[in-house]
Amino acid sequence: MKIKAINGFKDILPDEVAIWQQIETTARDIFRRFGMREIRLPILEKTELFARSIGEATDIVEKEMYTFVDKGITLRPEATASLLRAFIEHGLHVKQPVQRLFTIGPMFRHERPQKGRLRQFHQIDTEIIGAMEPQIDAELMAMGQLLLTELGLTVSLEVNSLGCPKCRPDFRTHLVHYLNERMDGLCEDCKRRTITNPLRVLDCKKRDCKALVQDAPSILDSLCTDCDLHFAAVQKQLELLGVTYKLNRFMVRGLDYYTRTTFEFLTTDLGAQSSVAAGGRYDGLIEQLGGPKNLPGIGFAMGIERLALLMQQKENIAVAVQADIFIAALGDTAIAYSGPLIHQLRKLGLQAAMDYSNRSLKAQMKQAGRTGARFTLIIGEQELEQHEGILRNMQNKKQEPFSLQGTVEQQGNQLNDLITSE
Ligand code: ATP
Ligand code: MG
């Protein structure tokens, strides 16, 4: 019986990896410009870390985590909790009060797999810890937008504020009151959420719930003065930076730790999956996890699978591997001769390919074409005797003799010069 991969766990095949690398390279380049440093984290953490940060009554912790119950450990469903755990454990703030960090890697959530929704998926996660100014919020959103733009993607940005522990409880009371009066119209999940996590009702995807909350009180009307000023300044800064956004007072996000600014980059090109990246502020979380007091933070996570899908749909990327040179060696002596030469070319940094199976010239030329080689060097018994191979420019089909005199280093250098000067 053939063994297949687990449902929701996907192989990323070489053709796709080219896109992934493009995404990661672009992200790293953007992060360099914004002074963000990479941190690499384990994928297993104590279950308690996620329960305490993401929140017991969230979908992720309630039903989506891969937990080894007997060992009390969980495959991370997101990166922020792990990153803050590491930040606190190593006292990173002592050296540098404001830390700009990013990490890239797999996350695990047990949800129903579909297009753009997997059980092992990958995120690019960025966090700025130790700064509370509204400009930081705007800067992070502008960075996310720049990254998406440089990847050639157009997405929209929605922004909300969730207030703080000072103003949210009041809002929560108003909202629960509103929901209690309309309990019959809510879905089963939202009936439960009204008690466990009422804000989540606001972003329920079900049509009836959506209609029902249209007239619910708005969190933006309940913000305390500080939160209100902060949010106004964030919006002003976004405008100054030329970042287009839309207010969405229903955006709640599925993690309990958010305070104040929350945001989401959305697309209409991925069917049911609209969220490309999402994030927000978490000003109380570090203290809640046993870290220093009054250390604010903000971050976002971007899903690489969704980015890759969007980029594939655009078909704007050349992903083919392209060899610099293919050596078509005909006959055993030529094959033996070509081995050291191809190794020399690789040492010099060229992408060089050859085939050892002594196939016909026609077959080897076909293979050279498949590798996308820019040049092919043909070496047969006769060429060896005359110390002169044939170098074919695969683009303009011109052929010229190539001298096989001298050492393999000399021949390698000559080929390298010829190819790199083209
Ligand atoms: P969704 O609303 O699609 O479930 P989410 O609110 O759970 O997304 P976050 O937890 O904020 O998403 O994660 C940030 C990003 O990670 C998302 O915008 C998305 O691009 C990606 N992501 C989240 N869950 C998955 C998944 N199961 N498969 C693929 N990508 C995912
Ligand atoms: Mg989700």
Task: Describe it.
The chain is of the alpha+beta class and 422 residues long. It has 2 domains: 14-167 and 223-315, 2-Layer Sandwich (BirA Bifunctional Protein, domain 2); 325-421, Rossmann fold, CATH 3.40.50. The chain has 16 helices and 16 strands. Helix 1 (14-33) packs antiparallel against helix 6 (134-150) and helix 1 (14-33) packs across helix 12 (304-314). The structure holds adenosine-5'-triphosphate (ATP) and magnesium ion. Residues 78, 109, 111, 116-118, 121, 123, 254, 273, 275-278, 301, 303, 305-306 line the site of adenosine-5'-triphosphate.
Helices and strands in order, then pairings?
Blueprint: H1 14-33, E1 37-38, E2 44-46, H2 47-54, H3 59-64, E3 66-68, E4 73-75, H4 80-89, H5 92-95, E5 99-108, E6 120-129, H6 134-150, E7 156-161, H7 168-180, H8 188-196, H9 207-213, H10 225-240, E8 246-247, E9 259-266, E10 275-281, H11 285-288, E11 297-303, H12 304-314, E12 325-329, H13 332-347, E13 352-354, H14 361-370, E14 375-379, H15 381-385, E15 388-393, E16 399-403, H16 408-421
Helix pairs in contact: 1-6, 1-12, 6-10, 13-16
The protein binds adenosine-5'-triphosphate and magnesium ion.
- CATH class type of the largest domain: Alpha Beta
CATH homologous superfamily grouping of the largest domain? Bira Bifunctional Protein, Domain 2
Low-pLDDT residue intervals, each spanning 5 or more residues: none
Architecture of the largest domain, CATH level 2? Answer: 2-Layer Sandwich
State the major sheet: 8 strands, mixed
Helix content: 40-55%
Calculate the mean pLDDT score and round it. Answer: 94
Kindly report how far apart the N and C termini lie. Answer: 52 Å
What is Rg?
Answer: 28 Å
Q: Report the principal-axis shape.
A: elongated
In total, the number of domains comes to 2
Q: Number of helical segments? A: 16
- SSE-based structural type: alpha+beta
The CATH topology annotation of the largest domain reads as BirA Bifunctional Protein, domain 2
How many runs of DSSP E, i.e. beta strands?
A: 16
What portion of residues belong to β-strands?
Answer: 15-25%
| Ligand roster | adenosine-5'-triphosphate, magnesium ion
